[in-house]
Structure formats: structure tokens, C-alpha cells
């Protein structure tokens, strides 16, 4: 599967949903956000939001500091 991830085309394993992507990327359960084709995906919808070849995703991880 080919996805545009944070502006770069990436070859990924077959990922059916945003939940699969989050697991593949090892995203933490909090402090991250996913945008799919310009729309923010709610965490509650990760398991039902399907991915297709050439989808555009932006993945953001919050970083704390002091």
C-alpha cells in the first residue's frame, strides 16, 4: 500500500484502518493526532476509518518540554 505520510510517499504493509496505521507507527494512546485527506480523525473513529492507496495523512505527536 502507498500512502502520502507527512508529505512523503511511503510504502506500507496493507493497513485497513487508521487504527492499523497508529499501531504500525507505534503512536501513543494520547498526545497524537491523525489527519486523513484534510480531515482530523477522531480517536474514537480510528477503528472504522478505512485507508486507501494514495491517501494523504498528517500525523502529529505532541512533545513536552521544559
TrEMBL record:
A Pfam family of this chain: ThiS
CDD domains reported in the protein's UniProt record: Ubl_ThiS (cd00565)
Domain of life (superkingdom): Bacteria
Protein name: Thiamine biosynthesis protein ThiS
Native source organism of the sequence: Mesoterricola silvestris
Gene assigned in the entry: thiS
